[in-house]
């Protein structure tokens, strides 16, 4: 995808490092797969997962001071540059959407934390083996870019659009937070009478985030290159509940949608109409 270069004046970026857990790229693939399964498929609270890791590591989750030099962070690697380019585009695109709908005063930019190893968040302790995640408590997207190498193996390609899709999906959760959708669904989950019912709500929210990722791409279709859409579809399919569990899904561990559902949600968003994503919201 031919995104314009990042502009540090349009983004909020920082980089946090974990204490003793391991730097990006230093965690084995098996660890990433197992923990990603817990987060993406089985519906485990990623911060409960991190707490378990923390107890095993005997307190090694303490993060060092965050680097807030955005230029330095964004030029530290190819993945970091892509993330900053993507964040710049996402901010501009969604700010324009809110403005066009007369909701400009409600738009807020999220922060992107390109952390390494482990990190403390307003939602608890995070760990790179959890995969990318969004914390509504501090409105921050957390990504350890070592995940992208694992995604390439899972999706069978190393295209940049697959990585942009992941960032745009997490950004979709930010949109749900500032519009109140996330809070409504969380309240409904608390009223759920079963784990399966709560997970159905979670699936709807995850599919809407996929749809929002597609909206961003659809509104920047002039920047899409041949093969980009296919890369996005492959990435969405690779992290479908049925693919990751080899078909062994149930109401108790079905949290993000099947490969087909995730691909379809992304395809729906590619029309460029964010209102089309309302079909995934069951709490209005």
Automatic annotation (TrEMBL):
One Pfam family named in its UniProt record? Zn_peptidase
InterPro entries linked: Uncharacterised_pept_Zn_put (IPR007343)
Protein origin, superkingdom: Bacteria
Stretches that traverse the bilayer: 21-42
What UniProt keywords apply to this chain's record, in alphabetical order? Membrane, Transmembrane, Transmembrane helix
Q: Please state where this protein is localized.
A: Membrane
Primary localisation category:
membrane
Q: What membrane topology does this protein have?
A: Single-pass membrane protein
Say yes or no: keyword Transmembrane helix present: yes
Concerning PANTHER family, the annotation shows: INNER MEMBRANE PROTEIN, PUTATIVE MEMBRANE PROTEIN YPFJ
Q: Return the protein name.
A: Neutral zinc metallopeptidase
Which species does the entry assign this protein to?
A: Qipengyuania polymorpha
Give the organism's phylogenetic lineage: Bacteria, Pseudomonadati, Pseudomonadota, Alphaproteobacteria, Sphingomonadales
């Amino acid at each position: 995808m031919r995104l314009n270069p990042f502009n540090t004046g349009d983004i909020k970026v920082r980089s946090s490092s974990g204490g003793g857990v391991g730097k990006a790229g230093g965690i084995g693939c098996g660890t990433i797969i197992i923990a990603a399964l817990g987060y993406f498929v089985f519906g485990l609270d990623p911060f409960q997962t991190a707490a378990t890791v923390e107890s095993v590591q005997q307190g090694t989750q303490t993060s060092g001071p965050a680097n807030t030099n955005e230029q330095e962070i964004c030029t530290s690697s190819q993945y970091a540059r892509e993330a900053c380019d993507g964040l710049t585009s996402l901010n501009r695109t969604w700010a324009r959407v809110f403005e066009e709908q007369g909701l400009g005063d409600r738009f807020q930019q999220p922060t992107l934390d390109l952390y390494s190893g482990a990190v403390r968040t307003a939602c608890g302790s995070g760990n790179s083996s959890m995969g990318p995640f969004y914390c509504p408590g501090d409105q921050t997207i957390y990504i350890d870019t070592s995940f992208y190498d694992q995604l390439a193996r899972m999706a069978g390609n190393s295209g940049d659009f697959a990585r942009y899709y992941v960032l745009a999906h997490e950004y979709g959760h930010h949109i749900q937070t500032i519009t109140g959708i996330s809070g409504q669904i969380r309240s409904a989950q608390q009223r759920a009478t079963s784990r399966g019912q709560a997970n159905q709500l979670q699936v709807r929210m995850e599919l809407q985030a996929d749809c929002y990722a597609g909206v961003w791409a659809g509104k920047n279709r002039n920047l899409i290159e041949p093969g980009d859409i296919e890369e996005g579809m492959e990435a969405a399919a690779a992290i479908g509940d049925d693919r990751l569990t080899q078909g062994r899904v149930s109401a108790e561990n079905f949290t993000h949608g099947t490969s087909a559902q995730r691909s379809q949600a992304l395809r729906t968003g590619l029309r460029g109409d964010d209102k089309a994503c309302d079909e995934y919201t069951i709490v209005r």
